[in-house]
Amino acid sequence: MLGEIASLAAAALWAGASIIFARLGRDDVSPLAMNLLKCVIAFGLLVLTLLVLEGRVWPYQLSLENTLILAASGAAGLTIGDTAFFGSLTRIGSRRALLLRALAPPTTAVLAVPVLGEPLTLKMAMGMALTIGGVIWVILERNPANEDDDAESEATSGGRFARHEIVGLGLGIAAALLEAVGSVLAKLGGGDIPALDLSIVRLAFGILGLGMIVGGMSRIREVVQPMRTPRKAWLIVVATFLGTYLGIWLSMTGIRYTYTGIATTLASTSPVWVLPLAHVFEDDTVSTRAVVGACIAVVGIGILFVEPHHLSFVTSM
After folding, report:
1. Which of 5, 82, 147, 201 could cross-link 153 (Cys pair, CB 3.0–4.6 Å)?
2. pTM of the predicted model, to two decimals?
3. How does pLDDT run across 93-111, given as a tens digit for each residue?
4. Are the C-beta atoms of residues 300 and 106 closer than 8 Å to each other?
5. Could you state, in order of their start, the residue ranges of all structural domains in the chain?
6. How far is the C-alpha of 156 from the C-alpha of 162, rounded, in Å?
7. Nearest-angstrom CA–CA distance, 151 and 286
8. Can you tell me the distance from the alpha carbon of 208 to that of 70, in angstroms, rounded to the nearest whole number?
9. In this predicted structure, what is the pLDDT of residue 63?
């Protein structure tokens, strides 16, 4: 029972953290700044945890080949994927951004077939269809009353998406695809190393990639600026601690104390958890269609991963 509770708690914390990050985006904190700050803070907390628990700060048992694969995993899932996710959050809100992220598990399963040699059964295909169908059904729902201004409402009232929504949806889909790539590479390069070590290595290379982008684009001031405002700095630390640090810790606990497929499914229920949170904290009107669609997507993930053969994918948030 401990594993199931931990996995559900991880999903709830990721949902809550996403709402905080979405609010930071509305306060003009850029997706790149949020991602780099989140990764740096989470990396420090995880390294400190490993040091306290095992007296070391790095998984020394990794070969060069595995390290390079995990470097690619961190670059795909964290450097690019999470930046795209934060960009999606700021444009379409936490509810729809997290729902799009539900596309990562079925994409992961598809990629695992040629890369990892894992099976793709008819039951898993049904799970993918349910997940994708649930996501599409909710995303295509139009509710102009939730738009921020009259111009955007006019643009969407006829069933068309506003420009910022199209960009947000594209970024959300890209984030899910890149998370899947990062997860498969993590599985390929991680071997049997503990999930905590794996998370630290991926974060290290994710930070390296983000640092290169920030330095190359001369955007260091953009990253540092939010930490000079106490309110923004506090929100970034809280969201990172809850969503990334505790989220990773609890997801590892879930995998350890229950079946991996069950833990993965329960940890993927963030689209359901975010519905009441978005209603309370973002004044987001949640329709029956949104609730049903999110539940269908999660059921699809459950069908997909509760299998004799399943992939334990590592969340990049």
Report:
1. 147
2. 0.89
3. 999 999 999 999 899 889 9
4. yes
5. 2-305
6. 6
7. 22
8. 12
9. 87
